[in-house]
Amino acid sequence: MLIIDGKKVSLDLKEELKTGVETYRKATGKVPGLTVIIVGHDPASQVYVRNKAKTCKEIGMFSTVIEMPSDTTQAELLEKIQELNNDPAVHGILVQQPLPKQIDEFAVTIAIDPAKDVDGFHPENLGRLVMGELDKCFVSCTPYGILELLGRYNIETKGKHCVVVGRSNIVGKPMANLMLQKSDATNCTVTICHSATKNIPHYTLQADILIAAIGKAGFITADMVKPGAVVIDVGINRIEDPSTKSGYRLVGDVDFEGVSAIASAMTPVPGGVGPMTIAMLLKNTLHSFQRINGL
Ligand SMILES: Nc1nc(=O)c2c([nH]1)NC[C@@H]1CN(c3ccc(C(=O)N[C@@H](CCC(=O)O)C(=O)O)cc3)C=[N+]21
Prior knowledge:
This protein has 10 helices and 11 strands. By secondary structure, it is of the alpha/beta class. It folds into 2 domains: 29-114, Leucine Dehydrogenase, chain A, domain 1 (Rossmann fold), CATH 3.40.50.10860; 140-274, Rossmann fold (3-Layer(aba) Sandwich), CATH 3.40.50. Strand 2 (33-39), helix 2 and strand 3 (62-68) form a beta-alpha-beta unit. Helix 6 packs across helix 7 (172-180) and helix 6 (141-152) packs across helix 10 (273-292). It is globular. The model has no long low-confidence stretch (mean pLDDT 97). Homodimer.
């Protein structure tokens, strides 16, 4: 069984991005800028946001984190987004989800200038992806990272049956639509399963490429996987574990031990899809910088 090493690929990618940033800095005197807004004090979100800022600095990008209190109103957040939309030093804007309940996530998503929407969540970007305009949109970072992994590991996709479990706007839907594209990198037959699907194993057992984005630890078990399948685990579930320093450990949506005896290749958690998500965010930010500056 081949382990698809997202950690390693993300490091390779960061080196490539670093070179790109440096080249443009020399040519233009400018660098790509990413601004992350975090509302409230969710500790998991804070760790993740700091991680993104650190990675930006490593590759020579400019990064700012705006921390807003948990009682921020929607109007205040939208005003901040307008400011960033108009700031020429900002090429990428990311508003960390989830947001406090007084704020409408969709209203926030559509307030971000699609040209700076490096998350790829704006309906214009998702719509362009659905219509196959991949070079004229931002692709949501997690699906984009999975595509990059499949490509770098030369995993054949054309005519294969890809089953996506999960239908979120930020992973399941863009992922299924990517795999559906008429392109050398995808061109799959695609099935989407979700919480109302009857007999999920009936579908997953037919998958040549199985993408699990459910949000339930160990949901995909060995008896649900076709021998030789490629299994991509998007889940990031925190499980309490007193034997670890942090008191928890991360597990995916796939029962790694069981499924690794059946699959031909799979992504681990941690070290699989997660690190690629951050790397693709930076790739999107570099693309945004290139487009905005006509490079
Ligand atoms: N606007 C917005 N955009 C996002 O892209 C977004 C978001 N909100 N909200 C939260 C989720 C979650 N997410 C992760 C990205 C990387 C790892 C990651 O790097 N995980 C490491 C482990 C990190 C650890 O040890 O905690 C790994 O899987 O190896 C995890 C989670 C992006 N999200």
